[in-house]
Amino acid sequence: MRWVIASSVPCLVAALEAFQAFSVDNAHGVILDVTDFARIDSVVADIEASHGSVDVLVNNAGYGHEGIFEESPLDEMRRQFDVNVFGAVAVTKAFLPYFRKRRAGHIITITSMGGTITMPGIAYYCGSKFALEGLSDTLSKERLPFNIVVTAVAPGSFRTDWAGRSMRRTSRSVADYDASFDPIRNAREERSGQQLGDPRKAAQAMLQIMESPTPPTHLLLGSDALGLVRDRLASAAHEIDRWEALTRSTDG
User: Fold this and answer.
1) Can you tell me whether residue 68 is helix, strand or coil?
2) Residues carrying an active site annotation
């Protein structure tokens, strides 16, 4: 199995060397900005030519944007979607022809519990993850004739850099939101690095689905994600039932 490092920001040479040191013969790193769309196809072609068939693609490049919807500029949303959505789509599209010709392959896209639930202050991030969920689910149906497996992995809160150095935060500008949002921002910063989820265990979970003969189309990671997503789905079902008569009233 071959591994590729894809990043939304330039990787440090030290990080690349540390990755390759895990297995000198089998770990091959490539530094790639996933928003450099013109370069992606040639990088993937070089990987296939140099290292042989890629069995599994893991779309993990991404970052979080935090900011009140009203305060956050559109440029921040464009950047969020360029990295989190268009980057994942471009890399996936580059690998799909190889997977389809071989009638084999597994595409794993890291989404988030924020692709099903929402929280104040991360509208752009949740929007990008909702988009990935829809794209991944649709792709899972299109790939059926070609024996290509597609899995959306939705983590809860894990001890990564998501809420730390990787987070882009829009400056506060509307005082009306001070009382409701400032405590949320402060708590998110204070909890960074102390989240419930263990990234090593997340990696082990993904290795399990790679080896499974019947991997899931969607996988939640973390008990917080499990509880919050279950509550959200139950609430949605209740609202659907409450408004069922109105829903049906539009049939001709």
Assistant:
1) coil
2) 125
pLDDT of 2 strictly over 70? no
Nearest to 181 by CA among 63, 62, 64, 71: 71
CB atoms within 10 A of CB 221: 22
Token output for 106: 């597994």
Torsion of CA 131, 134, 139, 144, to 10 degrees: 170
Cβ neighbours of residue 50 under 8 Å, at least 6 residues apart?
28
Averaged confidence pLDDT in the chain: 93
Number of H helices and E strands in the chain, helices first, is: 9, 6
pLDDT digits (tens, 9 = 90+) for 112-124: 999 999 999 999 9
Q: Is the pTM of this model over 0.85?
A: yes
DSSP 8-state code for residue 27: -
The token pair that represents 164 in the structure block = 């730390």
Query: Are 117 and 159 a contacting pair, CB within 8 Å?
Result: no
Give which of 139, 149, 135, 143 is closest to 55, Cα–Cα: 149
Residue 10 has pLDDT above 60, yes or no: no
Helix (H) or strand (E) holding 231: helix 223-242
